[in-house]
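Lecture 7 notes: from sequence to structure.

We start with a single chain of 366 residues. Read the sequence below before looking at the structure.
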Amino acid sequence: MKRLTTRQWIGYIGFALVFLFAAAVAVWRGDILRAGLDPQVPFQTYKPPPAPDYSDPQAWALLDARVAGAGTANVFFVHSTTFDGGSEWSGPIEDRKSDAYLRRVVLPNYAGPFARAGSVSAPRYRQASLYTRLTLRDDAREARAFAYGDVRAAFDAWLSRHPTGPIVLAGVEQGADLLDRLIRDRIAPDKPVRDRLVVAYLMDSIIAADNLSPQVPACSDRRQLHCVVAWSQVGDNDEAPARRRLRRAVVWNDHGQLVDLNGRAALCVNPVTGSTDEGVVPARLSRGVTNATNLEWGARPALVAREVETQCRDGLLRHSWPNLESIRERGNWADRRKARPYNLFYGDLEADVAVRLATYAVRPSG
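Now the structure, written as tokens:
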């Protein structure tokens, strides 16, 4: 047998090391990328970016934006995480990269369904970074709770601009979490404001069912007013992600802190029916899936109806996956962990808010 030379040994060892390194990167790539987003400083000693001034139009991604033929509602929309992180726990409102994702993906897909309901406003705020959604550290929870101060300030400034008229609240992921607290702190105790609230949409977020105020309960049918439509969606056969989502969920407690869901029931209102019914809702009732990414504000996307079967089960909205090329996860590792670049319930939300606004318009006075 021919013996290997030293050079050959070095070559084989080098190849093996490269192979092992590549395998390690493949296995731990998520951990490596996640670690790169860690600010590496305690939130308690972190100096956040300057607070937004909500009297300045630059503090708003949308401010009373209207499309032709829009209704009379005043829509307050809180966006999801668009800021990756790195050295910052909280995203500055002038960050160009996160603002680009907001305008390209989040606004057209998640604020878009409400464009025809009325004028839409969406504040920029010192959002907690994407890293805070990838860890259960106390620092991350504090950064997420810190963002609430901006959202409440934005809402109060917005409310002073809209002293009358119907109110619609909408938020997605982190934005929905913040609206959940706003409803408890600001809407439920204030009867004049509560009476103006038509509905609140808390999209793709886990909300503790027992956190809801009796004054603003879960919507039990499509014509109910002053109520909440909330859900967290997962594929109908994605059992491991479903268990992980519930296990890692955090919700507000009475002291304004984010705590583990810890086995409490999560709220699921099916956006296809606008109710808490737990029965299977056939795909033929789905009003329209779409990918509105990159559309200009006000442009209505093409909707594909009858595509998604849904069911509220164990606190989560289980759904079938439409066989559409446009409904795919795209983007880099970080973008794939943000709000999806499509909306499975765009048409359903358009229809739901239209019905509730029509009901509000003919409600008995007094």
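The helical segments are 6-36, 96-111, 138-161, 174-187, 191-196, 239-248, 346-361. Keep this in mind for problem set 3.
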